[in-house]
């Protein structure tokens, strides 16, 4: 009985994650049309997404990324429901095998988080989630040079810039983006400053660069 309850709780946690993901991406699609940046094709090309190293694309309810999450979350829900029934109603899987609960998380995390950055009048959309200005602690930029972890992963990012936004009250930060040129970085920095998001001091990589130059 307690084991069944445990699996049901894991199922509900997975469902909550899928629902939140779907609601976040819907809100992001609704708001992104009002973004201050990016708005033009050139501005979209000024944002690189680490990992796949693709230029950022608009997010609307007709884009592939939105449809993938929309239908993917539905499919993931039915997969988790089927797996839960398999655990509760059959002996095909031994219910005592607690590690089976991780399958719920594996199915839920199968839907990839979208990567993007939209600067709004009152906050930002970062990787498919809206953060109000009051939720952002600061932002930090780093020059992508030889000793930087992103250097060498994509030629467009080399000697470009890493932009990291820090969210308040979060143990795990939502991630970063790369900006290949100073022009777009300056535009982003100015807009973030205009909506009240402060820039932190120079990063460790900038400090290393200054130290090596001084030597």
TrEMBL record:
Membrane-spanning residues: 6-23, 68-89, 95-111
Keywords assigned: Membrane, Transmembrane, Transmembrane helix
Transmembrane helix among keywords: yes
Protein name: DUF5673 domain-containing protein
């Amino acid at each position: 009985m307690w084991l069944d309850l445990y699996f049901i709780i894991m199922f509900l946690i997975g469902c909550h994650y899928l629902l939140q993901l779907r609601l976040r991406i819907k809100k992001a699609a609704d708001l992104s049309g009002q973004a201050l940046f990016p708005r033009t094709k050139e501005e979209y090309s000024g944002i690189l997404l680490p990992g796949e190293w693709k230029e950022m694309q608009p997010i609307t309810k007709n884009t592939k990324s939105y449809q993938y999450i929309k239908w993917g979350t539905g499919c993931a829900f039915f997969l988790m429901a089927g797996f839960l029934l398999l655990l509760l109603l059959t002996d095909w899987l031994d219910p005592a095998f607690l590690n089976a609960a991780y399958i719920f998380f594996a199915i839920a995390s199968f839907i990839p988080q979208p990567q993007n950055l939209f600067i709004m009048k009152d906050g930002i959309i970062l990787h498919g989630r809206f953060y109000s200005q009051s939720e952002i602690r600061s932002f930090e930029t780093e020059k992508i040079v030889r000793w930087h972890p992103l250097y060498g992963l994509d030629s467009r990012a080399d000697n470009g810039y890493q932009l990291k936004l820090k969210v308040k009250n979060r143990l795990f930060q939502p991630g970063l983006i790369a900006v290949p040129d100073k022009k777009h970085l300056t535009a982003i920095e100015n807009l973030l400053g205009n909506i009240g998001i402060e820039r932190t001091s120079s990063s460790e990589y900038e400090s290393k660069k200054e130290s090596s130059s001084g030597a």
